[in-house]
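As a warm-up, study this chain.
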Amino acid sequence: MWDTNGRKIAHLLKRITRHRKKSSAKYEKAIDWYILILQKEVKFGSENKRVIRTKQKAELRLKKFGISHAKVKEILEAKGHTDLLSKIS
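Now compare it with the structure written out below.
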């Protein structure tokens, strides 16, 4: 039989450099995704079910990462999307 448990744990405890780098851009990507959904809401309307579901998921992701709506508004203003400020709930 194969050694299924011992080797995995051993190298995890000994060599920390083998771990991959964590993405530091995930917060930026979450905000960009929320902005993209706001743009789609303007394009397709706020009654589109697909837009509603994805907007809920994006808001939950922002909440998970601890990103406030004030930060999103700040980034919208910096990128020049002032027309989307009214769409933030």
